[in-house]
């Protein structure tokens, strides 16, 4: 696989691009954590390889390959792309098919598979066609005439799961009949064609505009094509280190923090917008953003403007909290006090808090000892609220956001609180743990 | 072995004031340990979503969140540090107690009272050296085992198969600790009595079988009692269970002292 193989010119930004006050170069050195940002251009490339090599590349072949003295020269041409990559192997098992649908005017899909996956041709072809069809339908036209899929062998894993203009690599072929990860990787890389390839934002400085959008689209594609649903609540809990999304890629510190925030948390931010605006409005937001900014290198603010224009609402606090500051919604039940009111009933005082995040309404469920439950809605505008309740029976527990509607609440344990710890269990754990620690310490010391 | 156990019991009785002091010392520790554990257990139980409207799923998410926070954040660091510091402090005090006790054991036939304080004054340095060396050697495999266990945990599909994989290593480590403990214990006896420590190590090997017998059997009693106390909390709750828990320190202290006295009898026997 030859990616990042030629000296690349930095992107030149004209006045107004990504909020620039004056034109100039967007200069960055190479960073291991970071991906792409370049200007669109026209590429004509001659590739001279040993005769037995089969070559896959960005764009299309505009001449038959020339064979001479045991060498073969391929000639490729691509326009409106911001990078060019290619791959060569004597072992590729190839297949080709044409495809068109609403939003996909006519594309040659070309597969270059590792022989181990020769029998998976149908799966790759089906995933590629379905993904293109959905992307064309949801966001807009696929503007190229080819899409090449390269599946590297097991020992070239490093080249797997990567996006280049009109050329993507699937996960390396390790297993002759893999599970849904085959489709998941492929539709993810094809979704990149829209966000990385066509919209083309600056991945040095705000990588989420590609990775998070692509991961969001990947989940949508997996659900629409294969009925595989996302595990959003678990992913949300995985965010133990939320950081800003508009941040230079190398400032995340390590690659885990980068990947968690830029891929997963960014995707969750989009899901949170979807859950607040509604699924229909969200598709309109995504389509409008794509249509308005294709080939334009937008920034986070461009996206915020689209969200505000489509929903006709103010999203400043939301973007400030979750995109620019990297906060968690962090709703919590801080305390419960429940006691007899002197008239045969009980009075309870419950303190709810929202220590981070933007104002957002939350459902609160109150459970009583007699099994009755009451649901209320807290508007979540202030950072805390004290609620007083009169009831026939003592309050047993309080749960804020019990149905897990608030996508960006990364600490859920504090959303639930009982009026008191169950006495029997508490003694049992205290005594058992005490005995255990005593036994261990006692085996080594007086 | 029976002889040693019987004579050990006599020695234990002779040191009844030491036993009382030991009990009070452990009771004090037990009190703080109980408060420390309860400060962790109570908040977890009040947050544990067992009555949550979405049922089982809430409990699963609670477990998942706990795992993420334990593995990915510094959540447990302070607690582990506190436990480690507590263990360290007790380990610093231990060889001093050992010095006094083992010296007094060695002079158990003498007239007059126990001679714990003289023992501490005379031999705490030497005994500390052997005790410290033993613990260093016994705990050394942790440097390799803890990172190994951690990475194995991350690779295993569930906790049960991880425990299955770790069990042989844990057993191996326990045997290693025991194998290091016995000769070093006898070296401490020799050091406290003013003998040459090497002799002690040789004696430990010569009397390995009865020594293993008392070293395993008596603490096993203690462990069974411990399990019984934990079990009792299923029936009793509140103050009664807590009182039983604290009172058990007396049993544990008695058995610990008795074990040490028996081991010392085995060390002594050749001279008698």
UniProtKB/TrEMBL annotation, chain A:
Cofactor info, note text: Binds 1 zinc ion per subunit.
Binding locations of Zn(2+): 188, 192, 211
Residues passing through the membrane, by range: none
All copies of domain Peptidase M1 membrane alanine aminopeptidase, residue ranges: 136-322
Entry keywords, A to Z: Metal-binding, Zinc
Record: active site: 189, 263
CDD domains, alphabetized: M1_APN_like
Cofactor: Zn(2+)
Residue runs in coiled coils: none
Entry GO MF terms: metallopeptidase activity; zinc ion binding
Pfam (any one): Peptidase_M1
This protein's record includes keyword Isomerase: no
Superkingdom of origin organism: Bacteria
Protein name listed in UniProt: M1 family metallopeptidase
Organism encoding this protein: Cohnella rhizosphaerae
UniProtKB/TrEMBL annotation, chain B:
Transmembrane helix as UniProt keyword: yes
Taxonomic placement: Bacteria, Bacillati, Bacillota, Bacilli, Bacillales
This protein's name: Uncharacterized protein
Superkingdom of the source species: Bacteria
Transmembrane segments: 17-37, 80-106, 127-146, 166-187, 208-229, 235-260
Keywords: Membrane, Transmembrane, Transmembrane helix
